[in-house]
């Protein structure tokens, strides 16, 4: 198997954590689809754009992790804003613990190798 | 939002809707996905971001991913399997009918007369046609009975195929008369194609008829078996 390098490796690493990051950003503040893409970009996460984020958001809604709420605006179009449900908050807590445990394990593994990021 | 942005949103949503139709996404689910997508693209457009910038050029791929992630139901038409099975299933009946008609399979019957009775000729062809139809329907039932709504499909085929045959026969004969009943291969191919196409349309209509409940809301619809893709 050919090792994956650069941006593709970054994409693969993010793939397993993107839903968690989306949930975390929505837990901070509800957003509509495009706004969430922008926030991911601002956070430095190259999530693959709207084409990746919007379908994933739809899946999270199907799983009951987020729910949408239509906000009517007198000056602009109505917006469907996504916010985290109680089940989503619980899931985020579990995912965060799992992630921290995973990162600790990976860091300790890397630290035990020659030049393991300690130079 | 300007007209150009609205036009881009319309185009994007229409392309997505076409893809959902191609994927046989249930009408109610497609309408919901379409409404949500339009709202989101409109919200982005009000901030100056065009739909084409967001979705990109591969709208079909985006729509397919969206349908997958939304977990929508797809109407299990299975037209290709149904048509192929119906055709293959008709072959034994055709072979048997051919054998009976040309005397390869002996049956007790009255000796032929110089003045054949029209009623007897029609009855003979009707029996042979029924034989082919029964062979096809039985094969469809035994091979595809695990698919949803197959009893209704076979019943609908049993009703619509004879009707289709009744329509196809005079049409094919009318075409044949225009070419002076030629036996040239291209003419025969067109006649077979015409007849086959009308039968195929009737099978597609029968399946759609049997599955019309799948277009209704989920609570009134039978559940897909676990093996269904």
Could you explain the architecture of this structure?
The complex is a heterodimer of chains A (119) and B (229). With 119 residues, chain A is mainly α. Helix content of chain A is 59%, strand content 10%. In chain A, α2 crosses α5 (86-111) and α3 (33-42) packs across α4 (50-62). Chain A is elongated, with a radius of gyration of 17 Å. Chain B is mostly helical and 229 residues long. At the A-B interface, α3 and α4 of A face α2 and α4 of B.
Q: Tags for this entry?
A:
heterodimer, A: 119 residues, mainly alpha, two-stranded antiparallel ribbon, 10% strand, elongated, B: mainly alpha, 8 helices, 0% strand
By DSSP, the count of extended strands of chain B is: 0
Q: For the residues shown, what is the average pLDDT of chain A? A: 85
Structural class of chain B: mainly alpha
Strand content of chain A: 5-15%
- C-alpha geometry of chain A: elongated
Helical amount of chain B: over 70%
Overall pLDDT score of chain B: 83
Could you provide a short overview of the structure?
Chain A has helices at 6-15, 18-28, 33-42, 50-62, 86-111; strands spanning 66-71, 79-84. Chain A is mainly α and 119 residues long.
